[in-house]
Amino acid sequence: MTWLFTCRHTCEATLRTELARLGLPIARSHSPLAGLVLADLDEPATAEALARWDPAFALQVLPAAQLELT
Asked: How many angstroms separate the CA atoms of 18 and 67, rounded?
């Protein structure tokens, strides 16, 4: 399942580092747009990890997000 994390522009790498510290595998290494980090995550493991530690650089967490670029 793809999750979308929003953050301030230029903080994408820091957010990816935070998510990696949670043990969440970030499948996509770049952000499609400024301030966005996409991650292909297993939902139960993600919900459990995010409940224990809320990433400081994530402004919003959107599970099952779909990004359409036009």
From this structure: 22
Q: Which two tokens stand for residue 2?
A: 């793809």
Its pTM stands at: 0.75
Cα distance between the two ends of the chain: 22
- pLDDT tier at 8, thresholds 50, 70, 90: very high
Rounded to whole angstroms, how far apart are CA atoms 65 and 7?
15
pLDDT tens for each residue of 50-69: 777 778 898 998 887 776 76
